[in-house]
Design brief:
This protein is of the alpha+beta class. Helices cover about 20% and strands about 40% of the residues. It is globular.
Length: about 325
């Protein structure tokens, strides 16, 4: 019998009446093990164990723990913002080869739950960043981190769901992180900031939260988060525009749906009187259907379009009101916090 590949062994349907072949399960398990093992061999050296420094009376103490992922050989690390949010901006990072280094926080963005650190190190092994947009439900993923302080721990599972949203907060500002990856790979305290990798060892997410028993979430690595990471590395922050509104996704009224040829939009549920939208004449109940030439069908669409380049620039929104569509110009301001 020809040797089965990993995909063949797991997915090839057994023909009706075909006798059970015990060797198939063994080969599938072996192939699964080889896939996970190869990811670990490629990636384990790129995942660091963080010990977070906090100021206390009489000095500093290393308290709290998390994980991080090396993204450049000269010491840049990626982790979760909530891992370092209560720190004094310093700490220690340890790797599976026994090396330890001091690090400093370069920048953190609570609204994406991402932070960039800089370790006093050279010749680190950077992980390859992948693209979470290519993931499929059911795909193998491997989580590497430091749960409960146990360095280099590995769990494996599958992508349980895609397109989930994770609420985040920074001061009085709240935001939904879009397209969060849901996985059944076991995540425990200390895993936050660690790597979620695909079967080729490419980091497709940063583990960020334990959502329940057998359920974990990871912030995706995609074009949006790559922009955030780049801004944190160069500027120490990520600038976001805001319009001064509260919003929610909703279906378009039938007449506007027929006119525009689509079904979704963003409804304005609250307008800050002295904010950019309030000064421009936006009202609660207005429907946002486009920003400049880009269509808006959901809150996630609008969030993706709110890039730093819009701050201080005149922007045209297409608004639906009382079953008519019209342009509304406003100037977004920078989100504080």
């Amino acid at each position: 019998m020809a040797r089965l590949t990993f995909v063949d062994a797991l997915l090839e349907p057994q023909q009706p009446g075909e006798p059970w072949r015990p060797g198939d399960d063994d080969e599938a398990l072996d192939a699964y093990s080889r896939a996970v093992t190869s990811v670990v061999e490629r990636l384990a050296q790129s995942v660091g164990n963080l010990r977070v420094s906090r100021r206390v009376r009489g000095g500093r103490v290393l308290a709290g723990a998390g994980s991080s992922v090396v993204i450049t050989p000269d010491g840049y690390l990626l982790t979760s913002a909530h891992v370092v949010e209560r720190s004094d901006g310093r700490g220690r990072v340890a790797f599976t080869d026994g090396r330890e280094f001091d690090y400093e926080v370069v920048g953190a963005d609570a609204l994406s739950d991402l932070a960039v650190l800089r370790a006093d190190a050279r010749e680190l092994a950077p992980a390859e960043l992948g693209d979470a947009e290519r993931l499929r439900v059911g795909q193998l993923v491997v989580a590497i981190g430091n749960p409960h302080g146990f360095a280099g721990s590995v769990t494996a599972g599958v992508v349980s769901a895609l397109g989930r949203s994770l609420p985040t907060r920074s001061g009085s500002n709240t935001r939904m992180v879009d397209n969060v990856i849901q996985t059944d790979a076991a995540l425990n305290p200390g895993n936050s900031g660690g790597a979620l990798a695909d079967g080729r060892g490419r980091v497709v997410g940063i583990n960020t939260a334990v959502a329940g028993v057998g359920l974990g979430l990871a912030v995706p690595i995609n074009s949006a988060t790559r922009r955030i990471i780049g801004a944190l590395m160069t500027d120490g922050r990520f600038r976001r525009p805001h319009l001064g509104i509260g919003i929610g996704s909703r279906p378009l009224p039938p007449r506007l749906a027929r006119e525009l040829g689509r079904t979704g939009c963003v409804e304005v549920v609250h307008v800050v009187d002295d904010g950019p939208a309030g000064r421009a004449g936006m009202r609660p109940g207005d429907l946002i259907v486009a920003v400049e030439d880009a269509t808006v069908e959901s809150v996630e669409d609008l969030q993706r379009l709110m890039v730093g380049e819009l701050i201080g620039s005149r922007v045209t929104l297409t608004i639906g009101r009382e079953e008519r569509v019209f342009p509304l110009e406003l100037v977004p301001e920078e989100l504080d916090g």
